[in-house]
Amino acid sequence: MNRHTGIDDLVRGVPRRAFLRLACAAGLALAAAGPLAAQTPAAQTPTAQTPAAQAPGGALPIFDAHIHYSHDAWDVVPTAAVIALMRQAGLRRALVSSSDDEGTQRLLAAAPDLVIPSLRPYRRRGELQTWMHDPDVARHVEDRLARHRYAAIGEFHLYGADADLPVPRRLVQLARDNRLVLHAHSDADAVERIFRQDPGARVLWAHAGFDRPENVRALLQRHRTLWADLAFRSEHGAGGRVDPAWRELFAAFPDRFMVGTDTFTPERLHYIPEHAAWSRAWLADLPAALAERIAWRNAEALLLPAWEANRARGDTPTADPCAQLPAGSERIDSDGAAIVWHTEPAQVTVGSPFAIVAAVCPLGQAKGAEVRSLAIDATMPEHRHGMNYVPQVRRMPDGRWRAEGLLFHMPGRWAIVFEAQVDGHRELLSRLLMVR
Ligand SMILES: [Zn+2]
């Protein structure tokens, strides 16, 4: 698998040359130039005052659409220092995502005017090649979506036929249900598969797929709700000159491109100001209106409405989990409680294990009471037997419940039974299912 080797080559090669060229052309001290910072810790202080690192008064604002702040970055660059780097860079806003999401929440809390959060599905660094096979990733994303607000899901890495695996499918579904943008580090094939799953998806194609301008053009032509970031590539604007093929593409699709640093290692957070300066240099070679669109207007037009719409859904998303009925969920009511539940996968078949996610909301006199426990089981009323296994039910951080290990071992009529202990009494709710 050489996709990642390709990126490493870029780390060592193209951007370094691009940054060095820029630095030389601008007569800057090389101490703060991006790639050197990775090798010389002394150069990492975010207060390094070079002309490029200062907030350029009147300079073109930049929306950096590709920032990560993962768990191993916090000690290297503290939250306040990251915000300081963003402000020095003259960033108008940034799309931020982080492995385990905590870093994104830290930056958002520190600078809500600057940060637009995206939910990265990874909990730790190193999951980017395995996540699509790991059902826990879907659960992690569901848990975070229940607790926080976002504009997007991503950046995730997904190639070819992997896009049709159950976990990526669930992500596409969650993005659709929550009206979130998908930030996909993908090849054209995976992008096509995402659009086949959800023709209404809004996809931000990370790095424009590291693809050639003619292939990027073909994909943009086919999909009106596809955008591309130019993060971590430099051939479109090396040396402050826009490459002719890219210039044609930018003119043909003026509202689809945006820029980004891609801080995929902690040290790269120090490059944010250099990247902004480098972007301004090549954008200056375009007509002003087009440069402004690519610099910030396109990103803002795509991401800000998504962020504001999600944020408007309230700061306490779990206050009444039964008030919302996400697609694929069902609500059951008794006198004393409501349950909103869905199965994972959505389609349950004989012989395949599945999970149930349920929110329990006491009603009537019990409204607001604590749900002490929930048992979930399934029986065949006509056969007077249950399942062969006892499902495990646990409470999730967002207050909902998750039952694992359910399996219908034969076709026919099954009853799903929910038994909730609400304060001092028991609520029994059930639903019949035909299973084939
Ligand atoms: Zn990235």
Short synopsis of the structure:
Keywords: Signal. This protein is an alpha/beta fold and 436 residues long. 32% of the residues lie in helices and 24% in strands.
Descriptive tags:
436 residues, alpha/beta, TIM Barrel, Immunoglobulin-like, five-stranded antiparallel β-sheet, disordered N terminus, binds zinc ion
Describe this entry's structure for a reader.
The chain is an alpha/beta fold and 436 residues long. It folds into 2 domains: 3-311, TIM Barrel; 330-435, Macroglobulin (MG2) domain (Immunoglobulin-like, Sandwich), CATH 2.60.40.1930. It has 12 helices and 17 strands. Strands 1-2-3-4-5-6-7-8 form an 8-stranded parallel β-sheet, sandwiched between helices. α8 links the parallel β5 (181-186) and β6. α4 crosses α5 and α6 (135-147) runs parallel beside α7. The longest helix is centred in the last third of the chain and has 24 residues, at 288-311. It is elongated, with a radius of gyration of 24 Å. The model is unreliable at 1-56 (pLDDT under 50). The structure holds zinc ion. InterPro entries: Metal_Hydrolase, TAT_signal. It comes from Quisquiliibacterium transsilvanicum. Residues 1-37 form the signal peptide.
